[in-house]
Design goal:
about 80 residues; mainly alpha; 3 helices
């Protein structure tokens, strides 16, 4: 009888709820998208300058998406899954 109570008491629970993990995955996807948009634009020849590295996508959009993704991650951590 005592062993059964210990098994019930030792039941493991996740730190976050299902809702938290959904927002965490969304945040990770937004961060990954930001880094993907930031990549590229270089040149194979070091003597040739490629002005494409200063495009709006790499300078404004991609870092904004990365910051938005980190904001979503913070929200996911602070979200109370038990609140309706």
């Amino acid at each position: 009888m005592g062993e059964q109570k210990r098994k019930e008491a030792a039941k493991t629970e996740f730190v976050f709820g299902k809702k938290n993990y959904k927002f965490m995955l969304i945040g990770l996807a937004v961060i990954a998208l930001g880094f993907i948009l930031m990549s590229g634009g270089g040149s194979d020849d070091p003597n040739v300058f490629n002005p494409e590295i200063f495009s709006w996508r790499r300078i404004r959009l991609a870092p904004g998406l990365v910051l938005l993704g980190f904001g979503i991650e913070v929200y996911a951590i602070l979200l109370n899954p038990n609140k309706k």
